[in-house]
Amino acid sequence: MTTPQDLLQLTPDTTLAQVLKGYPGAQRALFGRYHIGGCQSCAFSPTETLAQLCARNDNLPVSEVIQHIQDSHEGDVSLQISPADFASLRKETPDLKVLDARTREEHEAVHISGSLLMTQEVVQDAFSNWDKNAPLVLYDHTGSRSLDAVAYFIGHGFTQAKCLTGGIDAYSREIDPSLPRYHIEMEA
Fold it and tell me: Which has the closest alpha carbon to 158: 118, 187, 185, 111?
């Protein structure tokens, strides 16, 4: 788990590529508050700095944008569960619901034992029939996309939904090395 000391210190000269690497939910945070980075008309370049981004978006105060990214990151951290804590929860909760938010191909290639592929049918079943106060863990490959998925479930009343920090990749490294690791070029 990332500690405050490990976090990238954001400055006006920090590039958006660096921001997104250090704060995976930053694009969602920027779009949610400022409508930046969520669609083609408000896109940004990975080489653009925070100062450049703010200047071309109505001269937003850089310090305000940095604070918003950091505050949003703290919220993201509260939605996560470490691989070690997840492994403990699985032992304590034999009927724990675990959803895989990756593609069908990724799920078929390698998945955490007992997890369900998050299809539309599974989501509808969850919303209709699952206990919304029971623990629920979602995962993806590296932990970046599952934050959006867990926020969606929380928004639909799942009070104990969490996403796996670092995804199946971290789980394989830290808990179950029998799970093959892989790399997807688009995530690099």
Answer: 118
